[in-house]
């Protein structure tokens, strides 16, 4: 079962929290895909919808990445990935 929990734990979430977070990205991405598909066929429709959705998701992902990384580091500093400097020092 570790295969299902290792990555969610690395971002400070349990399995169900991570599923909810992933779905909160997947569904808007599906909407962006559909808007872009319609736009490809009918260029006068959804001219900025796809890019607007992607921009919002990117901003949300970057903001949450920093918040989750900080929370995970506070909860379990040993579980954090090695920095570039640490990786180079072991070579």
UniProtKB/TrEMBL annotation:
Keyword list, A-Z: Membrane, Transmembrane, Transmembrane helix
Superkingdom assignment: Bacteria
Low complexity biased stretches: 70-82
Region of interest (Disordered), residue spans: 65-91
Bilayer-spanning residue ranges: 25-47
Name recorded for this polypeptide: Capsule biosynthesis protein
């Amino acid at each position: 079962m570790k295969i299902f929990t290792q990555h969610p734990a690395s971002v400070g979430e349990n399995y169900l929290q991570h599923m909810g977070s992933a779905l909160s990205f997947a569904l808007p991405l599906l909407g962006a895909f559909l808007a872009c598909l319609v736009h490809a066929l009918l260029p006068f429709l959804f001219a900025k919808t796809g890019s607007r959705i992607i921009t919002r998701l990117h901003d949300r992902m970057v903001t949450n990445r920093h918040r989750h990384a900080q929370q995970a580091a506070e909860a379990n500093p040993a579980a954090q990935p090695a920095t570039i400097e640490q990786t180079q020092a072991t070579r």
